Amino acid sequence: MRHLFDFLNWFAICYSTGIFVESSFDENIIPQGATDDKRAQELQSLVKSLQEQDAKNNKAQSELLEQHEQLKSDYDKLLQQIQVQKSDKKRLAEKYVQDPNEAATREMYIDLMLREAGWDPKGENVEEYEVSGMPNREGKGWVDYVLWGDDGKPVGLIEAKRTTASPKKGKTQAKLYADCLENQFGQRPIIFYSNGFETWLWDDMQYPPREVYGFYTRGQLQTLINRRNMKDSIQSPKINKEIAGGHGRIYQEEAIKRVCEQYQEGYRKALLVMATGSGKTRVSAAIVDILTKSNWAKRI
Asked: Does the pTM exceed 0.70?
C-alpha cells in the first residue's frame, strides 16, 4: 500500500493540471482485519473446509495407488502364468509335430514327386551318389539324387533340403555336383534343388534358375540337353518376310531381332509394346517360326 501511495503521488505530480497538495502516508487509515471478527471466522472456516477436502483427496489418491499396484502385481503374475503355459504347450506340441529333416523330406516329398515324373527313387536313380573333385579335404561328395538317361549319362541331379530350409541354400552345392558329374561323364546334367514345397530348375549352360512345379521326365530332360547342341544361333535371325507381313516394315524386323537377341543372351522373356494395327500377330508368328526352325523350342 505504501508503494502504491508513492506511485500515485508521483503520477499526480507528473500528470495533474491542478495544484498538487503534498500528503504523507498514514498506516492508521488502513482497516485492520483483526477487528472484523465475522469475516475472520468465515475465512478460517473456509480454510478448514479446504484442508479437510484436501485430506480426503489425498486419502482417495493413496487408495487408488494401492489398487493400481495390486492390479499390476496381479497382471504380472497372470502374464507369467501365460508364459509358462505357452512354454508347456510348445514343449508338448513338439512331441507330436516335428520338422522333417532332410532324409524325411526326401522320403515324404521328393520321392513322391519323382514317382509322379516317372522315376523310381529306389531303383537305378541312386541316392547319395558319390562323386569326386569336390573342393573339400577329402575331395568327395554325395549327390542326393542322380537321374540317368538311356545312354547311362546323367541328365539331372537333385539337391534336397529340409522343408523349413530354403532350397536356394543348395544352389552352390548342386552346381559343384554338376561340375563333378560333367568331368566324369562328359555331360552336364540339369540341376534341381528342392525342399519338397519349392522346386527350382537350373540349366546353368543356358538360363538362370526358375521355379517349377515338379521334376521333369527322362524325355524332357534329354530334350533340354540335346537342345544345347542342336540350337542354332539366333543372334542374327533369318526373318521370313512373308510371315512378318512382306511390306518392308523396318520396325517389325527390328522388333524381331531385338527379341531374338534377348533370348540369345539367356533371357526367357521379352516384351514388345506395339500399337494397334502395327502387326503384333505377324511379328509373333515370325518369332515362333525362327525359334522352331532354329531348334530353340518344340511347342510355343
From this structure: no
